[in-house]
Each structure stands twice: as C-alpha cells, then as structure tokens.
Amino acid sequence: MSNLPPFSSRLRPSLAATFAVLTTLAVVTGLVHLLKRDFRRQSHLINVSLQAMVGVGGRPMIAGFVIADHSQTVVVRALGPSVARPADVAPLTQPRLRIVRNRDGVDVAMNEGWRVAANERLERDLKPYAPPDPREAACVLTLPAGAYSAVIESRDGSPGLAGLEIFVLLD
Predict the structure, then answer these.
(1) Could you give the residue ranges of the DSSP H alpha helices within the chain?
(2) I need a surface site. Which of 9, 28, 80, 90 has the fewest CB within 10 A?
(3) Which spans in 4-141 are helix H?
(4) Is the pLDDT of residue 6 over 90?
C-alpha cells in the first residue's frame, strides 16, 4: 500500500474552505488535502478533515461523501478529546460515529470507542490511523460506489468541538 498516515509531514493542505451547512445554519471550516498518486494522471482526494461543534441543541455533525466508480476502503474517524482547539472551547468528550448509506438511510457502521469495539484491522494493520484517544470512534470500511454520510453525535448529550477525518486507502 502507498498510504500516508494521518498528520504526516508529507501532507500539506492545498485548499482551506468554508462550507455553509444550510440545514443547521452552521458554518464549518474544513481542510482538504489533495495529493497526486501519479503526477502524470488525475489527482486523487485521499483525506478530508472538518471540525464543528456537536451536541449544541442536540445537533450532530453530518458530512456527506461519495465513493465514485468502484469500491474503496476508507478509515473514518470521529475525534473529540484529541482535537486541537482554543483553550476556551471544550472538546466533545464521547463521540459516536455512524456511517449512513444515503440511498436508503441504512446505518452501515457505528462505533462508540474504537478500542472497545472490534477494530482489529486498526490495531493490526492500520495503527497510524487509530485515533489518539480510546474514547474516540473509528471505522475501517470497504464501501461500494455510492453516497454516504458520516454522522458524529454526542454519546452523553454534552456539546463540544469534534473533528471528522476521512482517509481513502490507496492500493
């Protein structure tokens, strides 16, 4: 595999953007990493990360993503305690991560603490992608082409700043 682990010094943001989330009237600032696997070919998006307040008024963070053309293996992480933040902003202490297939609204995965759940692949083969804190959530999935949503909720109902990261694992 030619995967780059999270927070690698070789990853440099190539686009910082502000996304308006119209359903909740929130503005989320996100960072998109674009890297080329082969400079003679088309670029591949391999990492997206966003931060937003979760649990304010019971609202989750919802981010849509699309798997195009063929199945892809992805690591999706819901961070809370390890999110870099200003001193006056509390982290989401207990994130819950759900991956929803958009065409029928079915949950295809859920995690409430990556070390508690059976996440053998993160422990064994993908250790650099494992969240820094055991209370944080992560899923390793091979998803067929289609539209999906990553939903981060507060397990205990308390609000806080959460981070969502999606990594596409390249062959």
Answers:
(1) 120-124
(2) 9
(3) 120-124
(4) no
